[in-house]
Write the structure tokens for this entry.
Amino acid sequence: MTGLVVEAITQAHHGEWARVVATLTRRFGDLAAAEDAAAEAFATAVERWPRDGVPPNPGAWLTTTATRRAIDRLRRESRRDQKHQEAQLLFGDDPPEPSGAIDDDRLRLIFTCCHPALSPETRIALTLRMVGGLTVPEIARAFLVQEAAVGRRITRAKAKIKAARIPFRVPSVEELPARLDGVLAVLFLVFNEGYLATGAETAPVRNDLTAEAIRLTRLVRELLPDRRDGSGEVTGLLALMLLTEARRPARISATGELVTLEEQDRGAWDRDLIEEGHRLVRERIAAVAAGGPAPGRYQLLAAINAVHTDARDARDTDWSQIVALYDRLVRIQPSPVVALNRAVAVAEVDGPDVALALVDRLPLEGYHAFHATRAELLRRLGRSEEAREAYDRATELAGNTAETGYLTRRRSQLGAPDAE
């Protein structure tokens, strides 16, 4: 198989998998059958394209092939007559060419995979499989879960969707804000796992996952143009991902340690991603100024990251503006983790003693970042012994090798207790 054919099949899988699965799900009303037929179509492409050449419209070829595979399978099943007749009445023997309606089908597929009747872990696995096209082994490796467990989740999810008759549709206008939030939460979780992996047995930063989360978020944004409810948060999430991803080249040192924002080489940041992220943030600011809805969680987080990435040097960071943005975020999302992040900014404005008083009130004893933040604040206050204890606790709780490497180094810089 030539490199050009391999590249064509890879690109087709990346760009057409969700289209094919979504189209067949709408047509046959069976997510499992749609997935199987799509997989067969791609397997056929691997067999035929090297011999026959890449078709002019790979998406149409795959959709046609998958549909015929699905119809052939229905003919072989005991219930084939009723199902096949229904398909025939709707479409006839030859499937229609892919059209703009497929975009709506993909959006329906995303909302189906992220239906609130499914558990959060299942939503992630199903979205990555059905919309992202990742294999079960890839999903299992990404989240350090056994392949069999991922396979069971996906199988049970498809069965539940079928048994519960979960509708294959975009939610109504009334339902959209709440349902869209669930979709964005799934995409954000996927991105975060790639941004800083939770397990010690995987790479600390997973570019494949961050790239997939960005791609899927772009897709949702493209498929939800000009929707009044929720589209601002989609744009906000995309901006947040882009501005975070832009810093990836500078986040891990040559020795595999995490590099904090303050210490990063800002010349290594991806300026194109930063410019795109800033443009999206400005777009949302203008929309709010024009009377649009108040910014939500993702828009505020994106704005905070825009302030960080706007500073050419860490010393130029507008910490007062960051605190003000966190103040707004705390009002709409009063969580201890948000309060912890706000305290980091407060330390730069009002000093580490004020920030430490805020941090010590938070119920986050089992969260490694809580202890890492305390360690840094105690370090700045000259309370080295307490800082060592906080570093030790943070290291115990951190699962990422880059984080543990950084924490270990920071602790060692304090010196031995008897050297003070």
Notes: Residues 89-103 have pLDDT under 50 and may be disordered.
